[in-house]
Amino acid sequence: MNLKRLLSISTGHLTIDILNSSVYMILTAVSIPFGLSLSQMGMGALIYTLVGSLTQPLFGAWADRLRGRWLGPLGLLWTLSFYMFIPWAPNFAMLIGCLTIGALGSAALHAVGMIIASDAGGKHPTTATSIFFVMGQSGLALGPSLSGLVIASWGLRGLPFMAIFAVIPVISMFFLLRAPVHYDPVAMGAASANGGRKGNSASIKWGVIGAFVLLILLRSATMQTYTIFLPKFLEGRGYLPGAYGFMVGIFVFGGAIGTFCGGMLGDKFNRRLVIFTSSVLAVPFCYLFLGADGWLYYVTAALAGGLLNISHSILIVMAQALLPRQKGMMGGATLGFMFASGAVTAWLAGLVADQIGLT
Predict the structure, then answer these.
(1) What gap in Å lies between CA 295 and CA 11, rounded to an integer?
(2) Residue 136: which of 296, 355, 331, 285 has the closest Cα?
(3) Quick one: pLDDT at residue 324?
(4) Mean pLDDT over all residues of the chain?
(5) pLDDT tens-digit profile of 109-132?
(6) Rounded to 5 degrees, what angle do the CA atoms 138, 139, 140 make?
(7) Contact (CB, 8 A) for 101 and 47
(8) Which among 81, 225, 294, 346 counts the fewest CB atoms within 10 Å?
């Protein structure tokens, strides 16, 4: 296992997802001065997420051609550059435009990162990929907490200082990720053969794809809706940005733990059973933590996030196995659909919440 390459791309993943998850805190912070409704907040998150999601397959195909070079550091540099202009956006349209253009860098890093992480793992590609995703989930957990503290202390003008620290992993990736990834044709052929033994007919493959789509849609709808509107929900309960940023972080950090545990459980047990069981167990905790306070909130929120995210890495690995010669494209398409479907349903939830409220 090449730890230097793995840690470099994983740190880049951590950093860019800190910036990504700060978007929801930014939308909450500008909701009053810009006079935003809940559906407008959801639409802003939807536009940002769709651009960063639907372009991932394109960047994945590009990453397959470049064999993993350059896209990682350039993607992070692109995103942080636009992130630094957020405090000076004069209106909502300019804010979303700045965020949306910056989202292209996130799409590039996510698409190429899965290829580099798997390659860096050597004989343990699944473990390496899990580490890559855990670092990203940790970034999603830290983003609301860090940006909440920054906004509470200095307002939006403090955000560029967060972006400056992202320069460090950019430099690291430029130096450590210059070598192309190695594609093993023997391993890919074996993977294709294994896939063929499970069913060669087009109907079976379309059935698998249909099941993937449904699973991803249901999971992403819940996870994204909670992540986008939880800050506004907690603000309505009287919490300040520093407090509700930390509380959202607990929910997302639970998801990071769930991602790592899901990778191990998926290797040891039937993957479909793991996905089904974790999804069913998540339901009561997703309901309970919304009305909880104190330690009960932290326990139930962490369990809700963890159980929802157990299936994350399992779905990615299963999707890549369908087309092992285009891992970048398949990984990008799967992640892209996860984010896009979640953002669309979150926007629809915002329309409903405008009529009946969040509580």
Answers:
(1) 30
(2) 331
(3) 64
(4) 80
(5) 988 888 888 777 777 676 777 788
(6) 90
(7) no
(8) 294
Exposed / middle / buried, residue 295 (Cβ in 10 Å: 0-12, 13-18, 19+): exposed
**How far is the C-alpha of 315 from the C-alpha of 163, rounded, in Å?**
31
The answer for residues whose C-beta is within 8 angstroms of residue 20's C-beta and 6 or more apart is 52, 103, 106, 139, 140, 143
- Measured in whole angstroms, how far is the alpha carbon of residue 115 from the centre of its chain? 16
Contact indicator for 40, 92 with CB cutoff of 8 Å: yes
Q: In Å, what is the CA distance from 229 to each residue of 62, 106, 350, 359?
A: 34, 21, 8, 11
pLDDT for res 10: 92
Residue 210 CB coordination number (10 Å): 10
Asked whether 227 and 252 are in contact (CB, 8 A), the reply is: yes
pLDDT tens across 245-262, in order? 788 888 888 888 888 888
Q: Is 180 left (phi over 0), alpha (psi -120 to 50) or beta?
A: beta
Q: Which two tokens stand for residue 352?
A: 């409903």
Tokens, residue 110: 């996510």
Residue 262 near residue 308, CB atoms below 8 Å: no
Separation CA 99–CA 321 (nearest Å): 33
Q: Comparing C-alpha atoms, which of 129, 135, 120, 132 is closest to residue 180?
A: 120
Beta-carbon contacts of residue 157 (< 8 Å; ≥ 6 apart) = 87
306: amino acid identity, one letter: G
Distance from C-alpha of 45 to C-alpha of 349, rounded to nearest angstrom: 12
Cβ contacts of residue 183 below 8 Å, gap of 6+? 67, 325
**Residues in the chain with pLDDT < 50?**
185-204
| CA-based R_g, the chain, Å | 20
Domains in the chain, please, with CATH?
3-356 (1.20.1250.20)
Neighbours of 312 (CB within 10 A): 28
Burial of 106 (0-12, 13-18, 19+ CB in 10 A): buried
Distance CA 223, CA 255 (A): 9
- Enter the pTM of the model: 0.72
> Which tokens belong to 31?
């909701």
